[in-house]
Amino acid sequence: MIAKETVLNKMLQEIQLAKTNVHDEETMITHVKNVQLLSELILESRATTNDNVMQKEMNEQIKVEAVQPISISQTDATSTQDDGTSIFDF
User: pLDDT tens, 9-55?
Assistant: First the structure.
């Protein structure tokens, strides 16, 4: 992973180059696009970090839910319809 400070320094260099080429619009735009790409690099690394944190939290929640037993009411498990309307009445 590239250090953020390195990326920021490269952005500063590109901004300086863009400023020195104000009269050559094509070159200036190229340097501005480079700044944009470097900005996206930092933002994407942040998004990836946030995704990793969210994934860890979800995994921990799943583990907690897996440990907790699910209680089923005895009446639900053994209830039958004695009036003959059940689909299991033959």
Answer: 999 999 999 999 999 999 999 999 999 999 999 888 877 777 777 77
CA distance 67 to 57: 16
DSSP code for 71: P
Structure tokens at 9: 């320094």
Handedness of CA 59, 64, 69, 75 (dihedral sign): negative
Whole-number Å distance between alpha carbons of 17 and 11 = 10
DSSP state of 23: T
d(Cα 69, Cα 58) in Å, to the nearest integer?
Answer: 18
Residue 34 has a pLDDT of 95
pLDDT at 57 > cutoff 90: no
